[in-house]
Write a structure and sequence with these properties.
This protein has 192 residues and is an all-alpha fold. Helices cover 64% and strands 0% of the residues.
């Protein structure tokens, strides 16, 4: 018997942005889907517009599992996680231990197919880079949505994340920002 998928099903209970008032709470299951869709788009943009050769499907799959360990650790807010180097390094160790624990729940006959989802492999370097970029983009989009709903609690985070996203030296991120992000400032009626 394996508890792997029972643990993953608990992703819907892990809230993000725990230190901030949210107009719409976001859990890591929703967040992972959004990151997977954006990461896939970044891979497609890289391949079609910037002569890349990265698997969009693999990138999306890595994104779906990128926060899976949080079913064991919870979501540690960024101001705490990055408060100082010691906490950052300790949390990386906690994340690695959570990944190992989840991975060890997978039946032996299936482990080879899941190994790369939990532990970095050189073949996935570009995909993981795009997942990290998509993760930042999605955090930025969440801030935009909160501000759009009148929640100024996210104003400082929005500015910091916008700066962080713009500093990424990835042309596909710039393309995504220019092409897709402006629509997030529109109302439903304006999207028509």
């Amino acid at each position: 018997m394996s508890h792997f998928f029972a643990y993953l099903s608990r992703m819907k209970f892990i809230r993000r942005w725990g230190l901030m008032r949210n107009t719409y709470p976001e859990n890591i299951q929703e967040h992972s889907l959004r990151v997977a869709m954006v990461a896939h788009a970044l891979a497609v943009i890289r391949n079609r517009l910037f002569a890349g050769n990265v698997s969009g499907e693999r990138t999306a799959l890595l994104a779906l599992y990128h926060d899976a360990g949080e079913v064991l650790t919870g979501d540690l807010p960024a101001p705490v996680k990055y408060f100082n180097p010691e906490i950052k390094n300790a949390y990386k160790e906690i994340e690695a231990a959570a990944a190992r624990k989840l991975f060890n729940m997978i039946p032996e006959a299936l482990k080879a197919d899941y190994q790369g989802l939990f532990f970095a492999e050189e073949a996935d370097r570009e995909s993981r880079e795009l997942v990290k970029a998509a993760d930042k983009l999605c955090a930025y989009l969440k801030c935009m949505e909160e501000i759009g709903a009148g929640n100024e609690e996210f104003a400082k985070a929005e500015k910091a994340l916008r700066s962080s996203v713009e500093e990424l030296d990835l042309p596909e991120v710039r393309y995504f920002l220019d092409t897709f992000v402006p629509s997030f400032r529109l109302t439903l009626d304006e999207l028509d």
